[in-house]
Amino acid sequence: MQKKLVEVCYTPGGYDYYKGNFEIVVVIDVLRATSAICSAIHNGVKSLIPVSTIEEAKAYQDKGYLVGAERQGQIVSGFDFGNSPYSYMKPEIKGKDIVLSTTNGTRAINIAKDAETVVIGALSNLDYLINWLKDQDKNVLCLCSGWKDKFNLEDSICGGAIAEGLLKTGKFISNEDASVAAKYLYLAAKDNYFGFLKSSSHRRRLKKLNLNEDIKFCLTPNQMEVIPILKGDRLVKLDT
Amino acid sequence: MQKKLVEVCYTPGGYDYYKGNFEIVVVIDVLRATSAICSAIHNGVKSLIPVSTIEEAKAYQDKGYLVGAERQGQIVSGFDFGNSPYSYMKPEIKGKDIVLSTTNGTRAINIAKDAETVVIGALSNLDYLINWLKDQDKNVLCLCSGWKDKFNLEDSICGGAIAEGLLKTGKFISNEDASVAAKYLYLAAKDNYFGFLKSSSHRRRLKKLNLNEDIKFCLTPNQMEVIPILKGDRLVKLDT
Known about the structure:
Chain A has a single domain (4-235), classed as putative 2-phosphosulfolactate phosphatase. In chain A, 35% of the residues lie in helices and 20% in strands. Chain A is built from ten helices and eleven strands. Chain A has helices at 15-18, 33-42, 54-62, 105-111, 126-133, 153-167, 177-189, 193-196, 201-208, 212-218; strands at residues 4-9, 24-28, 47-50, 66-71, 74-75, 97-101, 117-121, 140-144, 172-173, 228-231, 234-237. In chain A, the strands form three sheets. The first copy, chain A, has a five-stranded parallel beta sheet, with helices on both faces. A four-stranded mixed beta sheet of chain A has the order 3-6-4-5, sandwiched between helices. A two-stranded antiparallel sheet of chain A has the order 10-11. In chain A, strand 10 (228-231) and strand 11 form a beta hairpin. The radius of gyration of chain A is 16 Å and the shape is globular. In chain A, 54% of the residues are buried. Chains A and B meet through helix 7 of A and helix 7 of B.
């Protein structure tokens, strides 16, 4: 059997280079959008509608949807919640369709939406996702959301974890240096994500906003067996 | 004394984000342009004129200059040499002005040329360069040439080495995740650059072209005490 590719793209801005060569795109925004999305779908939210702009989010709100909107790490004034995973675990949102717009993560999802399959990755669903990906026999691109089109540490480490998980099955190869580096960063970080990411710029940003509980949650791997998948314009639970 | 910044930018395409905030830009293209430039200046070449395009290189050749031109790792047909460091150590080129155009490195130099100071970094002049930088009291950006605007491992590791060298003086800080990651990659690679970079895509590319001797040379740190600096449109030896 021919080996499949697994690569890590550090930023949405870098996606053009990879576009078209990967049947599966895994969108990653560990702090906090994709961690929140996994939590929501795991906790029974029916679907999440990712939108790029606040204007789109507002339009949905006007139609009666619950809307999460975050910019610069904070809830956008006038919306129901931001992107704290804890906001998406409340019993009252079970079974609902919720709209979500975040600084980086929802933009990455929308950039990737022409791919054959778009799924959501985070540390919280890491092993479950890797286990599913390794049986698909498809080329896999881990698309990091980054921070305003710059490299970020936590997304790259999560991408490196997925790459390493697939490479060690022997069924995948990586050709790009970015993927090799992401794998090394994961191997350096894996025994202590929290400690390793002390120096991450976004962790410092969120800590200033008193979001340490969120950070701890997002950096704890393998808390849930769930894969959110994009169907049309909505993220729903993949039946595995 | 206020601490100065040291950051690592992975690609010329990412330079816009950093532009204007750093008095000193260190251009890095370990395999092989900046290693060759250090060798040339160390071995008595009077100046190197970096040009971005083959057309510019040809125009200089027509005026009688010796010209090095490399694309895709190979000497461009019709020119005197490519970017093997060994080509620039020949006694007959001492005292000469030489023109150089390479796939990535000379492009990065030209992108950075509006900075107050542009110097050339490689593993071959690593400690000597760090030692000079730490006494300048200026913000330092390590600009990696990458490979066709993608991240590459060897340049990022060299940038990480410079960042780490400056950070440990206590006189510098890094704010960006890209710099933190580059530093980690350097720490993982530093005891065995050659082994660590086995998986680098450009090393594989050059190995196919039978350039293993060049690779070994470029990955051997601290071979020379030289800093090439851009003065006008020419790289010359910095008097330290």
